[in-house]
Structures are given as structure tokens and as C-alpha cells.
Amino acid sequence: MLTMFLKYARVLSADRRGVTAIEYGLIAALISVLIIAGVKGVGTSLSTTFNKISTSL
User: pLDDT tens digits for 2-56?
Assistant: First the structure.
């Protein structure tokens, strides 16, 4: 049983098909983090602007 598991683990470690999918997943995660940070910064700026307009009215 253990030798069969080790053989299967060796075959899986040599398979590189999933590496590209993982790389694309990491790139997508990085892009989403950058988008969230940008939207948060713009949202804070807009909130401040709207508060100034509201108080001046």
C-alpha cells in the first residue's frame, strides 16, 4: 500500500499541467487585491468629498 502511494506521489510530482493553472490563479488574486485597494482608496476620497459638499449645503 505504501509503495503504491509513493509511486502515485512520484507520478503526480512529475506532472506539470497544474502549474500553469496555479500561476494564473495567483495572478488573478494579485490583480483582485490591487483592484480592491484602488477602489477602497477612491471610495474614501469620494466619501470625504461628498461630506464636504453636504456640510457646505
Answer: 788 888 878 877 767 777 788 899 999 999 999 999 998 888 888 889 999 989 8
Which set of grid coordinates corresponds to residue 10? 512520484
DSSP category for residue 44: H
CA distance 22 to 32: 15
Which position has the grid cell 499541467?
Answer: 17
If you count them, how many residues does the chain have?
57
CA distance 52 to 30: 34
* Phi, then psi, of 48 in degrees rounded to 5: -65, -45
